[in-house]
Write a structure and sequence with these properties.
Bromodomain-like; mainly alpha; 71% helix; 2 strands; 7 helices
């Protein structure tokens, strides 16, 4: 009985939500603030994708869907996860095969000091770091490679929660 509660789709979606929020907060407060790593445009796109997955997972957690609605939430999380995986794969490709010329634009301080807020705000979210530079790795995987692992994991977990056949008690 306890294992069925732990495997309930609502718990799976809650776990996805918590993990996404933890990753975005880690990116902002640890990688960006503590380590001083500036996110590149692809990092920002990955963050947006994690946030989108978190929102869908939170709604699914609160809604507690069954049947077709559960499958719909899982499909949306899976599609977002696959989109995020695509961004991660492209980002990883750029890290392994950097272009000869890369232009990432102006840094954050320049943008804030020279542009009005209405123009600076969208550029802040565009990222300023280099997409091809590997600033951090763990167990041989870079940040976008780890993001790809998580995106794939979220897609698989959501689909598993929606399509698994619960054991009879």
């Amino acid at each position: 009985m306890a294992s069925n509660v732990l495997l309930h789709p609502r718990v799976v979606f809650a776990g996805i939500f918590v993990a996404c929020v933890a990753m975005v907060l880690t990116a902002i407060f640890y990688f960006q603030q503590e380590l001083g790593l500036e996110p590149c445009p692809m990092c920002i796109l990955s963050r947006y994708t994690f946030i989108a997955i978190a929102i869908v997972a939170l709604v699914a957690t609160l809604h507690g869907p069954r049947g077709v609605a559960l499958k719909a939430y899982a499909a949306v999380v899976a599609l977002l996860g696959l989109a995020g995986l695509g961004v991660s794969l492209r980002h990883s490709y750029l890290q392994h095969f950097p272009p000869k010329i890369e232009s990432c634009g102006a840094d954050l301080e320049f943008i804030l000091n020279t542009l009005p807020l209405s123009q600076a705000f969208p550029r802040i979210f565009a990222g300023t770091g280099s997409c091809s530079k590997v600033d951090w790795s763990f167990l041989g995987l870079s940040i976008p490679e780890w993001a790809g692992v998580w995106f794939l994991g979220f897609a698989a977990a959501a689909l598993w929660a929606a399509f698994r056949k619960p054991r009879a008690g």
